[in-house]
Amino acid sequence: MFIMTNAKYFEGYQITGIRDRLIAMDDSKWAMISSVQLKDPTISLIVSILAGHFGIDRFILGDTGLGIAKLLTCGGLGIWTIIDWFLIMGVTREKNMRTIQQLLN
């Protein structure tokens, strides 16, 4: 059920690994897993398009250092902002995967 409701938060190749880890997981961790707040990649993309030159997209993901650098350089003079439009969804999914891995360990 977890995978069905949260599949959009992960890359396709990560789903089978998550499924295997969830099957082998202790029942005591289910409450923690079901209550975890994952970042939505689509929202990250929208924020990146609308306010990416201010670094807000990176602040939302928890990359404070990159957010400050992006803010001070106005998105790397726009170049970094455009590059992030293509990368931010993957970065968000990787952050979600790290969050799940920390909970499953």
TrEMBL record:
Entry's localization field: Membrane
Gene Ontology CC entries for this record: membrane
Keyword Membrane recorded: yes
Protein name: TM2 domain-containing protein
Bilayer disposition of the protein: Multi-pass membrane protein
Keywords linked to the UniProt accession: Membrane, Transmembrane, Transmembrane helix
Statement: the UniProt record of this protein carries the keyword Repeat: no
Residue span, TM2 domain: 39-86
Transmembrane segments: 42-61, 67-88
The organism's place on the tree of life at top rank: Bacteria
Pfam family, one: TM2
